[in-house]
Design a protein that fits this description.
Helix content: 25-40%
GO molecular function, one term: magnesium ion binding
Keywords: Lyase, Magnesium, Metal-binding, Thiamine pyrophosphate
Number of domains: 3
CATH architecture of the largest domain: 3-Layer(aba) Sandwich
Shape: globular
CATH class of the largest domain: Alpha Beta
Number of strands: 19
Organism: Sulfobacillus benefaciens
Radius of gyration: 24 Å
Bound molecules: adenosine-5'-diphosphate, ligand TZD, magnesium ion
Cofactor: thiamine diphosphate
Family: Belongs to the TPP enzyme family.
Amino acid sequence: MTDGFHLVVDALKLNGIETIYGVAGIPITDLARLAQAEGIRYIGFRHEQNAGNAAAIAGYLTQKPGVCLTVSGPGFLNGLVALANATTNCFPMILISGSSDRAIIDLQQGDYEELDQLSAAKPFAKAAFRINRPQDIGIGLARAIHAAVSGRPGGVYLDITAETLGTVLDIETAKKSLVIPVDPAPRQIPAPESIQRAVALLEHAERPLIILGKGAAYARADHEIQDFVERTGIPFLPMSMAKGLLPDGHEQSAAAARSYVLGNADVVVLLGARLNWLLSHGKGPLWSETTQYIQIDIDPTEIDSNRPIAAPVVGDIKSSITALVDALKPGQVHPSEAWIHAISVRKQKNVARMAERLRANPDPMNFSSALGAVREVLAKRPDVYVVNEGANALDFTRNIVDMSLPRKRLDSGTWGIMGIGMGYAIAAAVETGMPVVAIEGDSAFGFSGMEIETICRYHLPVTILILNNGGIYRGDPEDSDPSPTGFVRNARYDKLIEAFGGVGYHVTNTESLSNAVQAGLDSGRPTLINCVIDPTAGTESGHIQSLNPKSALQQ
Ligand code: ADP
Ligand code: TZD
Ligand code: MG
């Protein structure tokens, strides 16, 4: 005989799930123990949201669903923000939660950690299923995997009742019930006429632009995309997590002339990027009203979401870009020389302006001077994963720290969410074995800060750099009561990690900052650098101040 506990572990192993991120408790403690005993790596967290964020980014990095395991009720709800964030960002993950007695839940008789979890999860997940008997575990996990990785990836909720885990069934029936999904993320070949429409538009484009999104990074079509960009000579602009898909130093990168290219392109190719708030919805002063779009996306319902799309190409990026390159005759696409020249002039001007800011050496440090130092260290370590969240801490890092390899930059993404930092850092280290530098606002860090214990417990090569300006956006003036955005002044975050055996640094100038980042990377030990930033340095909401609602009274 076997039981639900064993079958869940067998099903996960059969499907190549090597790691589970979770928080233990009733009714899943024995499930976690058994998984570990059977050779699955179990990473135990301090809060389910961080375990969920770890699973989500593991999915992004591996194209396999990352798995998060939680207890019922509140533990499940803690994980739900991460599931929603995964869905919003198109990351494949599966949140597996144990659940209490259905009969008691449905009559609301007050069970331990009682919650109708399936109903709660549905609005926030790409799909949600419940398994009510052990013989359905195999097929239930197969459905969850298909849902997570097919088409536009997303977060899937899988509810497993405590009763299912404990129910026994005979080995033969159990074996037969397991399923390996065949081709769960099938290629989606674009319609030939959609490729012809795109070619027709590109052929006459004088000022074309390619926008690379994290969908393009996820798709792992790195060579095909490079080939398309370099053959056509079209300038490209990476969205933040697509930085490094082509190196930031590539001569066709138009990142340093962003507003110029967005405002002046006649044809824009959206490659795995949505026209959402991060691109001002394709509207307003940033954009030209006459811009025409080619959008390559796996999800047909993304087309025409914000602006009419003249040439939609619905398909997976690898197949679509391959078809597009095959359809283009040599020299058929030719950005005008005036366009390339105008971009290059603006780039040079902006790069020179930034170099000046990076060179300045104010005391205390500001975001530019501190990140100028970090930029130099990281330029020599393209293999390092960079996790990044905050407001000013996010905006300045995105602009200053160059990436030169794909999928190395992991950040707040589509939701602008705080709290992904330690979860993403842990999963990047666990999944890849590579060093991670998490560049964090002091507020952003606080949302997942307790996971430094997890980082120390598993001896992960994670260096946390806190750009500490004493608050959300900036610090409070001396001798004032706490404002809604201010924190304790002169806080020493470096001392926190020492409590768990990690290495703390307190740095007040660029030289000691460079040395500390270098030492963290060289040692491979859990390291936390408290980097003192001028509390007046930040601006409200960083680069997105305009999104704050304004009362008519203030105008
Ligand atoms: P960014 O924030 O970098 O602009 P988004 O998350 O807004 O990127 O957009 C990613 C897009 O990529 C989504 O619309 C998603 O449907 C699409 N996508 C994800 N994976 C693939 C794939 N393999 N092929 C094509 N499109 C994809
Ligand atoms: N809560 C969540 C989950 N996500 C959010 N984005 C916010 C709150 C609001 N918020 C931002 O948009 S940025 C930010 C918060 C709280 C923190 C900014 O402070 P920081 O960065 O210290 O992290 P800077 O460098 O001081 O700007
Ligand atoms: Mg701050």
